[in-house]
Design brief:
mainly beta, 12 strands, three-stranded antiparallel sheet, elongated, 183 residues, 1 helix
């Protein structure tokens, strides 16, 4: 009887280990981490987005659009403006640095408000909208680019200046933010 009990205990012990072994499973999993540099964005010039001096030549609303690629100005169909030939316009130019070969996106504002204090009339405003960016070496306006093998890139921003029919003369100024971030 002792032998039978001992055999039963051994059989139960072996069977129990066998059951536990059948309920376990092991899987090998990869781990990954990618380090990237903090992106930086800097103005490449101090002029910013400058439409130049505009001479109002007729009554009526007008627009002046400036291409991001080369600061070329184009007037709207109801143009009431002519640019002073002695003053050039400037796109806003930026330099980007970060992790080499990484793609990134930029965010441009929807509108930019410009204000001036006019004599006897208080504040007057104009807006810039339709802001567009052109990346260095790009053939079209875009908001996504790839940093070079050295981790650099550059772009320029242009837009459309909206001039109301009753716009007051003055030196209009404003500020706007441009943001870059990795995709």
């Amino acid at each position: 009887m002792k032998k039978l009990s001992l055999l039963a205990i051994i059989a139960i012990a072996l069977f129990s280990n066998n059951v536990n072994a059948q309920t376990e499973a092991t899987e090998t999993t990869n781990a990954h981490a990618k380090l990237i540099k903090v992106m930086s964005l800097a103005n490449a010039d101090t002029d910013g987005l400058d439409f130049g001096t505009i001479v109002l030549t007729a009554a009526g609303a007008s627009t002046v659009s400036m291409a991001a690629v080369d600061a070329t100005r184009v007037y709207g169909a109801n143009s009431a403006a002519a640019v002073n030939a002695n003053q050039s316009a400037n796109t806003a130019k930026y330099n980007v640095t970060g992790t080499p070969n990484e793609t990134y996106a930029l965010t441009l504002p929807t509108t930019v408000s410009l204000t001036t204090a006019t004599l006897g009339s208080g504040l007057a405003t104009m807006t810039i909208d339709n802001l567009k960016a052109r990346f260095s070496g790009g053939s079209a306006d875009a908001v996504v680019s790839k940093l070079s093998t050295t981790g650099t890139d550059s772009f320029a921003v242009g837009g459309t200046l909206n001039i109301d029919a009753t716009q007051k003369p003055g030196d209009y100024t404003g500020i706007f933010n441009v943001t870059v971030d990795y995709n």
